[in-house]
Amino acid sequence: MTSSAHGPDRPVPPLGAQPRRGAGRADAVVRCVSPGSGAAAMLTAAPLPDRPGARLSGDCDLDSRQVLASALGIVTRIPGPVVHLDLSAVMFLDAAAVAALVHASATFTAQGRRLLIHDPPYSLRKVVEMFPDECAALEVAA
Amino acid sequence: MITVPAPAGPGAFVHPALFYQDLAEYVAGVAGFVRTALSADEPVLVAVPGPHLDALRGSLGADASEVVWTDMTDAGRNPGRILAALQDFADHHPDRAARIVGEPIWPGRTPAEVREATRHEALINAAFEGRRATVLCPYDVRGLSAAVVADARRTHPTVIEKGRDLPSAAYTDVAAVSADCDVPLPAPDGDVLRLDYAHGELSAVRQQAENWARGSALTPARRGDLVLAVSEAAANSLSHGGGAGTLRLWAAEAGVVAEIQDGGHLADPLAGRRRPELASANGGRGLWMIHQLCDLVEIRATDRGLTLRLHMATL
């Protein structure tokens, strides 16, 4: 057992980091950190300036489930044969968020339209890899 | 002479352990089982360690092309994901009896892996109960410890040994075996980063895990996998584990460990061991994903709550 993998300059956790010895565990140096403010990752949506669609910013997870549902509800009402969803400012989507995108995409398909996703984060690509059949309908721009 | 388990009748699940002394006995027993299934036009999956795949393919010759082959050291590196793969295969052939060779334990497995693989062996009996299928599990009785072989007698209703296929007198109820696998986890030694979280803090949990993992030897992709696994586990804490939890992160000898503790109870011991639908929301989806993403998942379900210890190797 070694902590050398971190090297001497391991990233220092932000706000609230407090070294504490033996908290709950024997023979271990435990550093407790507080989660801090989650405001930076709060999910927001804005219309795209140059084409029909929206740009999401933030994280899509259990904490932002309702925001994503509302945003996608608005996106599906944007007119046009192709509606764009820019995810370049989304750091993370969980499986439920990807399921919501699949559902939204199916809504477009049923209307004879397309939802085109741009710049998804690693987590979306990984979830697609794990659920290939259900995510086959998702269209991601090359 | 090797005894091959008789084809099961309708609704009968057969789960024998095959105790072998050497490669010749192994190939004779397993290839015989495969040939019997193929001659009955039954679908066959062979999930065993790589070197054994080569020996079996060589023995089966042209018949080998009829078999689905899987290297268990890869697909089953985390024992917690094997059962979903076996059920996937059986589900793929709903009208025929699936014949499966599954070798989840081999010499060189760590004690923690063996414990979870033993739990997996017990859970096979619950998952396949009433299903027309066979899962034959070879055990290297010379290379494995006596304790591992003794546990195989507890997790398999029958044992094929020295050419005889007999009921196992030591066969034990699934829940009892699983409970015996719930030995206390060893305390980490060295630096531990601890984070308590609740609703509204999932983003911060991921941020801390990502920051911490940047200092480890994980590749960027495996770092992403770790963050995804931790996030699904933490979300389960919020939805099914009392609304709060604790994440601990530390470096291990050849990888990293993320441990999630919460007030959850594993109501269904088979949770996460069957491929879920993407849109399902019962907690099994997250657990299944965690099993797929990690190299080892140790699960401890006690009356005080649920602990998931996720291992990611850096080698």
Report on this model:
The complex is a heterodimer of chains A (142) and B (315). Chain A has helices spanning 65-75, 95-110, 122-130, 132-135, and strands at residues 18-21, 28-33, 44-47, 53-60, 82-93, 114-118, 139-140. Chain A contains 4 helices and 7 strands; from the N terminus they run ββββαβαβααβ. In chain A, helix 1 (65-75) packs parallel to helix 2. Chain B is α/β, with parallel strands linked by helices. Chain B has 2 domains: 13-181, Rossmann fold (3-Layer(aba) Sandwich), CATH 3.40.50.300; 193-313, Heat Shock Protein 90. Chain B has helices spanning 23-39, 50-60, 72-75, 82-92, 111-127, 146-155, 174-181, 202-214, 220-240, 284-293; strands spanning 13-14, 16-20, 44-48, 68-71, 98-102, 133-140, 158-161, 164-167, 190-198, 244-252, 255-262, 296-302, 305-313. In chain B, strands 1, 2, 3, 4, 5, 6, 7 and 8 form an 8-stranded mixed β-sheet that branches. In chain B, helix 1 (23-39) packs across helix 2 (50-60) and helix 5 runs antiparallel to helix 7 (174-181). The interface between A and B is large, with 50 and 54 residues.
